[in-house]
């Protein structure tokens, strides 16, 4: 009995050193995989199930399902007046925001990494959008009377959506566009610059997370690399493009993916608001789930396309 | 004495010349530009907080007076006192702190490990797992609210608990849902943390691990003794994310802790109590709410400042990365 099965021994040996290492690395993934398959998958399947049913609430805390097939999806895509146009507009918003958010957050992260007076203060301030982005801040902002009153007195309506109106007052679009075009910029580019200027308030508030991620990435680059580069005569500009940029390029992909997801799933998004409203309507949960799952597919396709485009520009030090 | 004076006199013109040299001027102008930019953006960020601060100092008569903008006519600290007492501020802060710490520590460790696994596993299956990770942040939590609530209300893992105790167990009003979600890397935005860590580890040169393996370290000792210390700045960042998002969270707190006193619950129950209860009219609910929110987020900013110090110290200590 003690003698090992020779076939088994040979198979064990035939696993190369590399393959054995690969198997050990899978151990790191066990907690996530267990949780995903035992807890989350069931939750997702339930939600998917609701989308094919009419969810009818019976009483205090019970409900039952009535099979509808594709009816909910059909309603969302063909009968709901706003759903499809809302999806289109949120894709456009996302596409305009990505480059602005990435450039802005990278710039601020580089600035905040420099030695300067008041750095700690500015770092703390630029962390605040991370806190404000989620949770009870958005809930509480809904009824902040002071800012309402101030904007009202200035002749401006409130809420994030109308901050652009305020900016419109500052940069009168048509005049500014003419002005920019007179420099020889094409109308499309000058229009884009104007949109950027008008959205600066939103951009600042949605870039907090990205900025903090970039900052941490830059902070983990060893100062020794910069030192040796500067001994070799590299300027600050060169060392940014040749050291900082490649070293944090893996994080650019994270930030782009996060910007896409955040722009699609934040509670300010039109679709998310529509889904949220739908959920609280009587017996509307089936339709809300259908909308959500269709929307999820759209977002997933966007994320995959964008990742494939950027992937070629990313530099990893790990060999594949 | 004379010699020293002479020396100073000789130095002065050269200093002046240096001060007005082209390079120096350019650098100063650049510095001024950067400060103006930073201060402007800082104002945009701080404006909502300043308006909260001003609301927190207003009495209810100021709040409803349309001529009072920003600077209260009868400044009062009454709002702070009311929030301190009625929102059970001390107990709620203690509970929130404990829950946030627990969640943040677990999530940081698990996400770092999962990220490392994903960076090292090189196969199609590994990419599939990465897809699952992104999936968990792609699906907005609002959508799975009902099934998630039911899952933890009638908790069971693959029928095992039912087989042992004959029924499902409820995990409401305990920290278990948060612990379970954290240990498996499925809590709020954990997919983002895993993705960050995976990308970070992909950027570390493989030679470091090879050197450790030649020194006789196995995979786990290499990770915990060599690779993990290198990723301290990233992990502190993730810790700050998960800590502050757990701190301000309303979604899971509302779902799991409806009877537990945590900040995001007590502040809102306090305001709604004032809206309809005996005190209605004496206080402006809006300024109470703003005060509560302000009091709740200030500790977070302070913790971030300390964490930043830690990050910088961490890099200097470990002297990484080539």
Number of strands of chain A: 2
Mean residue pLDDT of chain A: 77
CATH architecture of the domain at 82-268 in chain A: Orthogonal Bundle
Largest sheet of chain B: none
- Shape annotation of chain A: globular
**CATH level 1 name of the domain at 82-268 in chain A:** Mainly Alpha
Span of the ends, CA to CA of chain B: 52 Å
Taken from the alpha-carbon principal axes, the silhouette of chain B is flat
CATH homology superfamily name of the domain at 82-268 in chain A: MetI-like
Query: What do we call the CATH topology of the domain at 82-268 in chain A?
Result: MetI-like fold
- In round numbers, the mean pLDDT of chain B is 80
- Strand percentage of chain B, roughly? under 5%
Task: Throw out a few tags for this protein.
heterodimer; A: 320 residues; MetI-like fold; two-stranded antiparallel sheet; B: 322 residues; 75% helix; flat; disordered N terminus; disordered C terminus
Describe the protein.
The complex is a heterodimer of chains A (320) and B (322). Chain A has 320 residues and is mostly helical. Chain A has helices at 6-14, 17-27, 30-51, 71-79, 83-113, 119-133, 136-141, 145-153, 163-170, 173-181, 187-198, 200-206, 208-219, 223-231, 236-265, 270-280, 285-311; strands spanning 53-57, 63-67. In chain A, helix 5 runs parallel beside helix 13 and helix 6 packs across helix 13. The radius of gyration of chain A is 26 Å and the shape is globular. Chain B is mostly helical and 322 residues long.
Topology of this structure?
The complex is a heterodimer of chains A (320) and B (322).
Chain A: H1 6-14, H2 17-27, H3 30-51, E1 53-57, E2 63-67, H4 71-79, H5 83-113, H6 119-133, H7 136-141, H8 145-153, H9 163-170, H10 173-181, H11 187-198, H12 200-206, H13 208-219, H14 223-231, H15 236-265, H16 270-280, H17 285-311
Antiparallel strand pairs in A: 1-2
Chain B: H1 2-20, H2 22-56, H3 60-64, H4 78-86, H5 89-120, H6 124-138, H7 145-153, H8 160-165, H9 176-183, H10 190-202, H11 206-214, H12 219-230, H13 232-247, H14 251-256, H15 263-276, H16 285-318
Helix pairs in contact in B: 2-16, 4-16, 5-9, 5-10, 5-13, 6-10, 10-13, 11-12, 13-16, 15-16
């Amino acid at each position: 009995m003690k003698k090992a099965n020779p076939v088994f021994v040979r198979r064990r040996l035939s696993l190369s050193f590399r393959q054995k290492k690969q198997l050990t690395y899978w151990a790191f993934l066990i907690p996530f995989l267990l949780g995903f398959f035992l807890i989350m998958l069931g939750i997702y399947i339930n939600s998917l199930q609701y989308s094919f049913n009419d969810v009818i609430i019976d009483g205090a805390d019970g409900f039952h399902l009535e099979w509808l097939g594709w009816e909910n999806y059909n309603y969302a895509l063909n009968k709901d007046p706003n759903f499809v146009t809302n999806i289109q507009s949120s894709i456009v918003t996302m596409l305009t925001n990505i480059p602005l958010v990435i450039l802005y957050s990278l710039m601020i992260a580089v600035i905040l990494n420099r030695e300067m007076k008041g750095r700690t203060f500015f770092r703390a301030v630029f962390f605040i959008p991370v806190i404000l982005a989620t949770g009870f801040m958005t809930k509480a902002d809904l009824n902040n009377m002071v800012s309402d009153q101030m904007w009202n007195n200035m002749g401006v309506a409130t809420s994030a959506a109308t901050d652009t109106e305020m900016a419109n007052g500052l940069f009168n679009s048509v005049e500014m566009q003419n002005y920019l075009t007179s420099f020889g910029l094409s109308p499309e580019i000058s229009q884009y610059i104007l949109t950027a200027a008008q959205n600066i308030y939103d951009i600042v508030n949605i870039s907090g997370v990205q900025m903090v991620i970039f900052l941490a990435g830059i902070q983990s680059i060893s100062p020794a690399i910069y030192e040796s580069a500067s001994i070799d005569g590299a300027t600050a500009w060169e060392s940014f493009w040749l050291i900082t940029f490649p070293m944090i390029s893996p994080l650019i992909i994270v930030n782009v993916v996060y910007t896409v997801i955040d722009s699609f799933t934040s509670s300010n998004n039109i679709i998310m608001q529509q889904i949220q409203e739908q959920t609280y309507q009587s017996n509307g949960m089936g339709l809300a789930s259908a909308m959500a799952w269709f929307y999820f597919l759209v977002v997933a396709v966007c994320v995959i396309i964008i990742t494939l485009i950027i992937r070629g520009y990313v530099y990893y030090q790990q060999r594949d | 004495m004379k010699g020293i004076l002479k020396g100073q006199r000789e130095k002065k013109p050269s200093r002046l010349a240096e001060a007005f040299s082209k390079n120096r001027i350019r650098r100063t102008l650049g510095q001024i530009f950067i400060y103006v930019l930073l201060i402007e953006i800082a104002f945009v960020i701080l404006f909502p907080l300043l308006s909260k601060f001003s609301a927190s100092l207003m009495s209810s008569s100021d709040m409803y007076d349309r001529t009072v903008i920003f600077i209260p006519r009868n400044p009062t600290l009454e709002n702070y006192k009311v929030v301190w007492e009625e929102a059970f501020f001390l107990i709620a802060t203690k509970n929130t702190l404990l829950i946030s710490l627990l969640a943040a520590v677990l999530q940081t460790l698990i996400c770092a490990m999962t990220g490392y696994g994903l960076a090292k596993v090189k196969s199609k299956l590994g990419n599939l797992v990465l897809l699952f990770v992104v999936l968990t942040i792609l699906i907005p939590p609002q959508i799975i609210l009902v099934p998630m609530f039911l899952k933890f209300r009638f908790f069971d893992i693959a029928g095992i608990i039912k087989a042992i105790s004959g029924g499902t167990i409820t995990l409401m009003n305990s920290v278990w849902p948060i612990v379970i979600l954290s240990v498996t890397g499925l809590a709020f935005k954990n997919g983002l943390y895993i993705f960050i860590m995976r990308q970070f580890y992909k950027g570390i040169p493989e030679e470091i691990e090879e050197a450790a393996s030649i020194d006789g370290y196995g995979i786990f000792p290499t990770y915990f003794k060599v690779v993990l210390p290198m990723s301290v700045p990233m992990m502190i960042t993730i810790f700050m994310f998960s800590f502050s998002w757990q701190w301000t969270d309303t979604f899971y707190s509302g779902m799991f802790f409806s009877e537990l006193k945590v900040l995001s619950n007590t502040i809102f129950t306090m305001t709604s109590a004032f809206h309809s209860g005996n005190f209605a009219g004496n206080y402006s609910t809006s300024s109470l709410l703003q005060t509560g929110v302000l009091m709740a987020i200030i500790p977070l900013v302070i913790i971030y400042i300390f964490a930043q110090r830690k990050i910088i110290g961490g890099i200097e200590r470990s002297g990484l990365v080539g």
